[in-house]
Amino acid sequence: MARVKTVMTYRDYAALPDDGRRYELHDGDLSVTPSPGRTHQAIVGRLFAVLLEHVTTRGLGEVYVSPFDVILSDRSVVQPDIVFVAAERLAVLAERGVEGAPTLVVEIISPSTGRIDRVTKPALYARHRVPHCWIVDPAAHTLEAYVLDGTVYRLDAHWAGAAPHALAPFPDLLLEPARLWR
Q1: Can you list the domains of the chain with their CATH numbers?
Q2: What is the dihedral of CA 116, 51, 148, 28, to 10 degrees?
């Protein structure tokens, strides 16, 4: 007997219990991951604080921290660790989250979600035309900044070491590694 694959939609996703688990939809497939660990959350908090200050003081748009839904389509709903929506794209914001492509998504790699954060989610982001994607690897102390080039991401910058570095879409923000990895 053949198994029938169940494809979930945003409506199914919205009906999931609020049980503390982290749910996402990847092309209709439900993904459930454990809560992030302490190091992951510390880096999310530090990077969010830097981006929030930079974005708000310059009126560049809005920044959100997970859990915050990014509804790419009826079958793809994700919760990037950090989401930036540039001022010219604010129309994608709704009370339930981002409805469409934000300007930047940031994924902090966790041991249990490495493949999802490096492969599955960036493929979704590219397909749904998210212009910028950052992948932060706490174990390697690196940040990779990707820029959408047609339908795929191209590595725009690889940030490692101690030198401050500016990354798209923030050319006037020098990120200091010591602020993330301390």
Answers
A1: 36-181 (3.90.1570.10)
A2: 40
How would you write the pLDDT of the chain (182 residues) with one tens digit per residue? 666 667 889 998 989 988 878 888 899 988 888 888 899 999 999 999 999 999 999 999 999 999 999 999 999 999 999 999 999 999 999 999 999 999 999 999 988 888 888 999 999 999 999 999 999 999 999 999 999 999 999 999 998 888 888 899 999 998 887 778 87
**Distance (Å) of CA 131 to CA 7, 48, 49:** 27, 19, 22
DSSP code at position 89: G
Identify the three-state secondary structure at position 135.
strand
| Structural contact between residues 105 and 70, judged by C-beta atoms closer than 8 angstroms | yes
| Torsion-angle region of 151 (φ positive above 0: left; ψ -120 to 50: alpha; else: beta) | alpha
What is the C-alpha to C-alpha distance for residues 13 and 30, in angstroms, rounded to an integer?
Answer: 8
